[in-house]
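Section 4.2 – Deliverable D4.2 (structural model, holo form)

The reporting period included a commitment to supply a predicted holo structure for the target in complex with flavin mononucleotide. Inputs used:
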Amino acid sequence: MLRIGPLTPATNLLLAPIAGYCDLAFRTICREFGGLGLACTDLLSPQGLLRGTATSLDLAKTNDFDKPIGMQLYGADPEIMAQGARWAVEHGATVVDINMGCPVDKVTKKDGGSKLMTDLSRAVAIAKRVREELEKCPVSAEEWARRVNGSSAFVESHAPIAHNECRMPNAECRASGTITIPLTCKMRLCWHTSDFESGQACSPHLARMLADVGVAMVTVHGRTTEMKFSGVVQHAGIARVVEEVGGTIPVIGNGDVRTPEDARVMIAKTGCDGVMIGRGALAAPWLFRNTWALLSRGEHVPPPPEAEQLATIRRYFDLMRTQRDDRYAIYQINRRISWFAKNLQRPLPGGKMESVKPFKEAIRLARHADEVLDALERFGRGELRGAVAMAEAEDAA
Ligand SMILES: Cc1cc2nc3c(=O)[nH]c(=O)nc-3n(C[C@H](O)[C@H](O)[C@H](O)COP(=O)(O)O)c2cc1C
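Output (structure tokens):
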């Protein structure tokens, strides 16, 4: 059983933050399939949250079904990060996470993300200051229970929490508050690949120091910053962190988990306490359910049938329209249809594969929500399909 400070998620499977992808609508469909223990917002700018910029507030949107939820902050200034953490507590976070792994220039040039892995004292100072701030704004037991369990079923009235709606209990509750929101950190192995190769990765040392200042869990993406997203995930690097923290806090393994079996291998090879899945879930939001079935019951669950997959795409689209707007929904469905469609291809007799290219084209050309809905319906009726040679279909996927 995974324990993140006071939080015991229902499973040890986590949805990774993926900037621009793991929004409230996507988290909702993953949760509806089941098996997901903890999800996280994409990385959030504390300055943006504190200023109330529309983009940051949209990224931080959550609701009572979207629980438990981590809110991930990035930055390099301990004080601003602390104020961002307080904002997260006041707006529904179950967990606050610090991004120590983002390799993108925009973030590292300002000393945030994985740049912190080159300045461990700053990384620890941020965690320490954030932890202090979290201790100053505990939530009541009742509020904590809401943030852990949320509501068991999604009801359409679960609109996202309004931007300006503070979810903190009233002053009286705060005074008797007993639960401090746990702090977690997500990191890579280290910055330079040569350091990892020579056994000098800083992640084990950093994880131990973070545990010492009260961080309740670390997630390790098994790549160096220099590797960005290429090369093979280094299970040995994650195993070193597990060994170093010696069970004082849980370590989550992350990277290249695309199937339930990959998750089993990640745990077996690293000894990690749980698995975080990112890109694998973008094509298969049911991956948490299927992985949990394998890990907990040794059961191999097949992907959902085509009709259910189509209903999932439709559901995702509808959620984006309600939670954001048509423009956003059309933009997102357009850039993600290739992933969703991967699982819709079916083998045909004679070494051929059903092509979903006409379907993808129809979605990509859609300029209005009705056109997206029409393409989904037509595909469901057996239209917008073709047949291509197996190899061609694999290339197109
Ligand atoms: C497009 C993209 C955006 C990402 N955004 C974030 C982010 O906001 N915060 C973060 O901690 N990691 C981010 N990551 C890293 C993922 O959380 C994860 O560590 C990485 O993709 C490896 O896991 P996976 O192979 O399961 O996807 C991002 C990755 C990608 C590909």
